[in-house]
Design brief:
There is one protein chain. The chain has a domain of 47 residues. The chain is 58% helix and 10% strand. The chain is built from 2 helices and 2 strands; from the N terminus they run H-E-E-H. The radius of gyration is 17 Å and the shape is extended. The mean pLDDT is 85.
C-alpha cells in the first residue's frame, strides 16, 4: 500500500528490491515442479511464477490507461504499410 511519503523513486526501489529477492529465491529452486505450501494449499513453483507473471502483466496493463491519457500513444503495433 502506498504511503503519502512514497515517491516514484521509493516505489521503483521497492519493486527492484522485490525483483532481486525473487531472483534469489528462483536461483535456489532446482525443480520448477517442486511443491510449496501456501496459505490455501500446495502448488508448484511453476504455478507461483505463472501467477506472478499474470499479476505483473495485469497491473502493468492498468498503468497503460493513465499513460495513454498523458501521452496519447497506444500499445498497438506500428503501422507497417
Amino acid at each position: 500500500m502506498l504511503e503519502e511519503t512514497d515517491s516514484v523513486e521509493t516505489v521503483i526501489t521497492f519493486y527492484e528490491d522485490e525483483c532481486a529477492a525473487s531472483r534469489d529465491v528462483m536461483q535456489s529452486v532446482s525443480d520448477p515442479g517442486a511443491l510449496v505450501s501456501l496459505d490455501d494449499g500446495v502448488v508448484s513453483v511453476r504455478r507461483v511464477v505463472v501467477y506472478m507473471l499474470e499479476e505483473t502483466a495485469r497491473h502493468a496493463g492498468h498503468m497503460d490507461i493513465p499513460r495513454e491519457q498523458i501521452d496519447g500513444a497506444t500499445g498497438g503495433f506500428p503501422d507497417r504499410s
